[in-house]
Write a structure and sequence with these properties.
about 50% helix; elongated
Length: about 70
């Protein structure tokens, strides 16, 4: 079985807050929103990659099933 193809865009990082250290309440709010959007982006990509890599139980080889 060939390895699953994962689109390259799903392997790219998601941006979070990249600005200077927030000094005001408004800047903190902007930073929190940017971080939340970055995490939502990353979680969405992880979920998509997980779906792509999901293999039906009957198709797992013994080496992938070992817990060592």
């Amino acid at each position: 079985m060939p390895p699953p193809r994962v689109p390259a865009d799903l392997l790219q990082p998601c941006a979070g807050y990249t600005g200077p250290l927030p000094q005001t309440e408004g800047q903190i709010s902007d930073a929190l929103i940017a971080e939340a959007r970055g995490r939502e982006c990353a979680n969405g990509k992880l979920s998509a990659v997980g779906e792509i890599l999901a293999v039906p139980i009957g198709h797992l080889g013994t080496s992938r099933m070992s817990s060592s």
